[in-house]
Structure formats: structure tokens, C-alpha cells
Amino acid sequence: MPKRIKKEIAVIILAAGKSTRMKSELPKVLHPLCGRPMLGYVLDLVTSLKPAQVVAVLGYKQELVRKIIPKGIKIAIQKKLSGTADAVKVGLSVLRGFKGTVLVLYGDNPLLKKETLKKLLDYHLENNVDATLLTAQLKTPAGYGRIMRDKYFSICGIVEEKDADEVQKDIKEINTGIMAFKKEKLSANLGSIRPNNRKKEYYLTDIIEIFAKKNYLVDGLKIQDTGEALGINTRAELAKANCLMQKTINDKLMQEGVTIIDPPSTFIDFGTKIGKDTVIYPFTVIQRGVKIGKRCFVGPFAHLREGVGLGDGVVAGNFIEMVRSRIGSKTLIKHFSYLGDSSVGANVNIGAGTVTANFDGKNKNYTVIKDNVNIGSDTVIVAPVRIGKFAVTGAGSVVTRNIPDKAVVAGVPARILKQGGKHG
Ligand code: UD1
Ligand code: MG
Q: What pLDDT shows up at residue 422?
């Protein structure tokens, strides 16, 4: 898109709504998709377009939502949630003095892609359209506003599902909610919208009929990938969107050289880093911010939570849970273990069933395990504890005190059997 055109675009993101159909206390746009609030994806998308101005319209629990709004984005508050047209009006009040194209996006539409928006904006600007809608052809259009076309196939309005008759409900072309407008015409006509519908709300979609009746140029661009059109109103739609987003994340990782044995049973959040030639086995959950080096083996049934970093060549095998832990290269943690709040060195062997007892009921305590340590099976490490390099713990040890380098300990509580061990 030429720079000249880019400067003429302002974006209004609607994110004031409640979580009515989600039946949730959390605002809908904060519900996570692959570990990140759905609104976060929309905000990223908008930022990547580099428009002249962006305003997010917030309302329900705005104090929570505003925490994820980046600095360059303005915030407008919709005091009474009386519909999408009213929300756009609130957004426009912040864009005073702006002339050009207003792009309206919904915060519950996180799968939308940048290329699609660019296409919509290019089409809108090149053809000098007054309102361009992004539409989609769906096999099951239930829940969405339907696009109405006249006998010349021109768009003449949008009817919401709740207000549609049986014939209209059969229409398969739906409104994705994404629209580009000439700002002047949008501002001048929003006031004509009346809440004459089942929900008694001011619907932005009603502006299309108003435009059409005035013979303004209204046009639609059909989205190719219908998954992008998914608007999330219910928990079932959230699960569907999560599944699609997961596929995108997993596909990207595989393209980058990560082996994922069974992508549908591998749950990797947005914002993780995984090195080349690492293999992820099925039924594994890797949460946001986790970093995994090259040539690692993870899973099956591994749960890597926030703050986990694995060096190159680490094995985190079956039934491993880790949180806030750094693991040095070539360390092996192969069978059912829990490591929390720990720093583990390189070339360490963590025996089956090892547990860091990191929580004393009040505080989280830290475990340090230095390089080349050998932790025997079923060792419980009662943190805070530091285990020196080349130390060895016997099977079933309960470690309650620091262990010097090269020492061998065993028992409950663990006592030093040998100073200096085999490497001494
Ligand atoms: C809307 C469209 C529908 C379209 C669908 C696509 C309207 C009237 N209907 O329906 O045609 O097919 O999206 O997903 O626009 N919001 C506010 N303030 C309000 C009400 C809503 O900011 O007063 C925000 C919500 O937070 C949400 C967005 O606007 O992000 C859309 O609202 P929602 O209630 O989800 O509309 P849908 O019923 O999905
Ligand atoms: Mg919606």
C-alpha cells in the first residue's frame, strides 16, 4: 500500500461489550486464545498496518481491558453499552479532525489476517467506495448478520440473525463485522440509526441500508479463508478459534524446523520459542513465554509452564511438569518429575520421580542444581537448597540441606555418605 494512502486510515476497535453469551465475568475480549487475550491479536494486527490513528472503544470492565492496550492506541469509553453503532460514535469522537478512511474492527475477531485487511483497504480506496464490507460465504451462517442483496446483486442491507425471517436466515453470505468507511459519510449518518430491533440496540449494520438508500457506493469483498471470519461470542466458538489458532502456531513451528509428532494433541501457546530439530511428542502443553533450545525432546505428556527455559539437547520426557525453571544443555529429565522455581545446570541427570518441594505454604523457594549432578530416583528436594556440581543423591533421598560439590548423599533426611564422591 502506498504511504500516502496509509496515512489516511484510522482504525476503531470495538471492545466494550460484555461477556453475555460467554456467561463470564471476564470481558469477552480478554478470554485467551492459545495463552493470549483474543484482543491482543487484533491489536497486533492493527499496529502492523501502521494507520494514522487507532482508537479502542472500551466499556465493560474497561480497567481490566485497558491494561493490554499499547501506548500508541487511544482509548474511548462507551458509558452505556447500547450497540455497535453507538460504540463507533464514541470512537469517532476521539478522531476529531481526521479525514479519510475509517476501518472498523471487532475485538472478538482475532483470526483475521493482515493480508485480508490490506486487500479490503486497497479495494475500498482504489474503487472510491463509501462503505466496503468484508463478507464470507458460510455453510452454516447461524449467529451472524446476513448480507442482503437486491436484484442487481448490490448490497442493500444487513439483517441480524435475531431479526431475520426464515428466507433471510437461508442467506449464506454473512457480515464479518469488518468494514471500511469514508469518514464523513459515516459520521453524517450514524445519527439516523434507530434501535428498531429485538435487542433494542443501535446496530452499526443498519448503516448499510441507509447508505444504499442514499445511493452511496456500498460494496463487499468476500474473504477466502472462512476461518478468518470467526467471531467469538460463545465458549464453543472460543474452542473452535483456539483450535484454528493452534494450527497456525504449530504450522509455523514446523516450518521453522521443529518436529511435532501429532499437531492436534500438541498445545503450544502464542509467544514461545522452540529451536530447530527439537521433537515434541503428543499430549504436551507448552505455555506462553517458554523457550526451548535446539535438539530437545519434549513429552509425551509434558507440561511446561511460564518461565521455563530449556538449553540445547535437553530431554523433558514423560509426565514432566516444570514452572519458572531454567535447565542447562544436555540435562535429562526423562520420567515423571516436577521442577518448580529452579535452576538446573548442564549434563545433569534427574532421576524418575524427582520433586522440588518449592512451596512451604507461604513462599515459593528456589532450588539450584549445578552442572553434572546426578539426582537419584524419587528424590524430594525441599527448597531452598543448593546442590553442588558432581553431587549425587541416592534413590528416595529427601534433601533438606545444601550439598557440597562432589558429595554423595542418601536417606531421609539426606546425609552425606561420602565427601568428594567419584569425581573427588
Ligand atoms: C456482530 C454484527 C454481525 C456480524 C458479527 C460478526 C452488529 C449489530 N452485528 O454481531 O452482523 O455478523 O458481529 O462477528 O454489529 N461492542 C461494543 N459496544 C456495544 C456492543 C458491542 O463495543 O455496545 C463490541 C463487542 O465488544 C464486540 C463487537 O462490538 O467486540 C461486536 O459485538 P457482538 O455483540 O459480538 O456482535 P455480534 O452479535 O457478534
Ligand atoms: Mg461477536
A: 59
